Amino acid sequence: MLSNFDGPAEIVAPRISIDHGKCIVPMACKKCLEVCPQAVFMVQVQKMAKYVETDINQPGAYKLRAMFQDKCVVCDDCLKVCPVGALTITVPQEV
Fold it and tell me: How is domain 19-90 classified at the architecture level of CATH?
């Protein structure tokens, strides 16, 4: 009998920060998207015009998002491949 069991332990996901001042053309780069084994990242369109294709090299046209931070295993592969150093990962201390 588990008398000291209070339920499942709380899992705290790592916090991924993206410096959008450095990561200005994520669709042209896509290195973090390609290397992440957990598919944590996605790119979101920021500038759209009807019947006009959005240029992947236009700064600010796309924005990198860490939509699935809870899936991050902190392998740091994204940090290693980012050519502009736009990513940081912080792991919260356990309570």
Answer: 2-Layer Sandwich (3.30)
